[in-house]
Known about the structure:
Elements: H1 3-11, H2 16-23, E1 29-33, H3 37-49, E2 53-58, H4 62-75, E3 83-85, H5 88-92, E4 99-102, H6 110-118, E5 122-125, H7 133-146, E6 150-152, H8 160-170, E7 178-185, H9 206-210, H10 236-253, E8 260-266, E9 280-286, E10 291-297, E11 309-315, E12 318-322, E13 326-331, E14 339-342, H11 364-380, H12 388-407, E15 413-414, E16 419-420, H13 424-428
Parallel strand pairs: 1-2, 1-4, 2-3, 4-5, 5-6, 7-10
Antiparallel strand pairs: 7-11, 8-9, 9-10, 11-12, 12-13, 13-14, 15-16
Helix pairs in contact: 3-11, 6-7, 7-12, 10-12
Amino acid sequence: MNRRRFLAGSAALPGLAAVHAQDNPRPPRGALIGCGWYGKVDLFRLLQVAPVEVVALCDVDRTMLDDAATQVAQRQASRNRPRTFRDYRELLCERDLDIVLVDTPDHWHALPAIAAMEAGADVWVQKPISVDVAEGKAMLDAARRLRKVVQVGLQRRSTPHLIEARDRVVREGKLGRVGHVEVYCYYHMRAKENPPDAAPPENLDYELWTGPAPMRPYNPLVHPRRWRAFTEYGNGIMGDMCVHMLDMVRWMLGLGWPRRVSSAGGILVERDSKANIPDTQGATFDFGDLQVVWQHRSYGAPADPEYPWGATFYGDRGTLKADVHKYAFTPLNGKVPTQTGTALFEYERYPEDRTERDLERHVASAVRGHMRDFLARRADRGRPVADIEEGHISTASCILANLSMRLGRTLAYDPAKHEVTGDPEATRLLKRPYRAPWQHPADK
């Protein structure tokens, strides 16, 4: 699949504007819960590819909420300003939504996503889908019970140059037999500061922002965007960056659940930071005849400066390196790659990409492709490329790695029984306690 063919296919997928015009008396009505950085990135890509009317927005930060409403009114065809809400439950109570995007911090993914499904909407939810394994299972169960289409923001599966690498390298057998894949992130992305705790800003409802997570004193590192520094709200670099690359490997190679997961690491270097997530972590995802091995360090030099965050596939006939910017295939004993590809930029079709604030421009085409797939599956009621089940497997695998590091032993998760085989302590940790009065979806 070359880039020209991909563009032709995606542009016709499957005549989305015509489908909506023919089958619906009005454009789909959409809402965004979580109006921060990536919430707007996702929503604006949706508006680029389909005639969706954004009728509602929700955020616990009123400044962020007002800014998002202004930008949406400027971008959508109707120029209507969406209704705005502080509490997602109030947004959903009118039950007038077809699509809901959930782009909150990770600890707020499960409850709004399930509530949106229960309110009748199909859902887009950012990765990782959950902060514990039981949340993810509850989200999957809700999607199947309510027959909702749920797309997870694992857009490597819709990245044009990675689709090309999968089709023209992996599926054509150029790697030969693959027994080992390395996935890694060497970005210096962990917060290094140690600011004192403070009073929350007046524009932020910190009580509602915290929600079901453990309450800790407000710290300026938390909001906006750097909440990943704390285990209370997410699963660290493992849950943020490994989930993307592990999911990409699973997609490219057709893998399901790992048989065993083991991990080790901790805060080994950056001990002066307020952050409590590991700065160093390795993990092995054992798929039987294939090992996928993760490594992250938030300090020092990357193993390969050309690929600071990516995956390397080792086969007996060659090696494939892939990341969000490019890929390169080198045959065994070859000195230079014989096949390469780079990220697709679509400035001629979407010139606004050039000036949009905080947009990762090399990823925009992937998010648009992911949105097209989501909309197409809404039309035929099929399962999207990053269906909630795929998101659950990749997310839970990363959570299991963190639990393995915490417990100091290898874990074998049984998805049919929803337990860690022979390990009652680890099984109990598949569900973390919710802060009252919030109720864990696995308890309902």
